[in-house]
């Protein structure tokens, strides 16, 4: 594993990369009438500008609902990329974090891609600076470079494959079966999980998600003891000890499917707590419990909600549509290099739909393939 470690409390020249800066820019809570008014205004603007809203599961309830009510989508990063590319609208509004907007622009360079707040970034993206990453790749030219979606366009431009948490396991398995060695970046927990599951020869970058890194096994064991019938769903960006306690390990979409299809009444969910909104809509009879990030062994930098995702709000959608604020630009040369690794992933998934099946540990019944 590389020794690179990023300090997320650090200020850069603009201050924009620091979590305190992100929390300070989170839109203030609104009253119900204020929310309804802003939502109606944003919906009218989307229609007037022939734009479509693509929201991630981790953004606030109103942005998820607005996307669905106006013909957009609420999805994980894989589906967001596909949806934006295939939609007829020439303007995409991406409610999520910057690498998602960049991926949309890379896949659709002729479209206008707007974001509610361009400062919304990701600790994995920040923790993998392109120049450092290029040196890492240069030192290991015999390896296939596989990068997670949560990286900058410049890092993707250097990669052979992009993966999301939905398909990473299947793609690395495919590379291993083809006799390839892998250089993996940036999430160390996801990389280690894939290494263990596939037995592939992988060199790992030392990055982490500040949300998933916070889940704690000791407290999760106590919670499980209080809810012995609960199914435990864990995102593989979480620490190894937490993943070991899971019944299902998977991406956000795979976790959502596990709740909808699962036979259990209770679910302990270890990912950003905003996913609960969509889970409640799709599985209204189920009880959802947040996995613990607090307790004796925790520091709770995020408390299970991403500060950068939280920066997205209705007013930001209105501002970007009214004033063109928050437009994503990607250097065309970098974009042309980066699109190859994304297209390779999308082709692989199209040819191997079983690649998106959730990973069920032990003998859990009632969860089908995706
Ligand atoms: S939840 Fe984690 S991986 Fe997702 S955007 Fe936030 S910091 Fe990045």
Automatic annotation (TrEMBL):
Enzyme's top EC category: transferase
Single annotated GO MF: transferase activity
InterPro entries hit by this protein: NadA, NadA_sf
Alphabetically ordered keywords of this record: 4Fe-4S, Iron, Iron-sulfur, Metal-binding, Pyridine nucleotide biosynthesis, Transferase
Keyword hit for Protein transport: no
SUPFAM superfamilies: NadA-like
Top-level lineage group: Bacteria
Pathway: Cofactor biosynthesis; NAD(+) biosynthesis; quinolinate from iminoaspartate: step 1/1
Heme recorded as keyword: no
E.C. code: 2.5.1.72
Requisite cofactors: [4Fe-4S] cluster
Record-given protein name: Quinolinate synthase
Gene: nadA
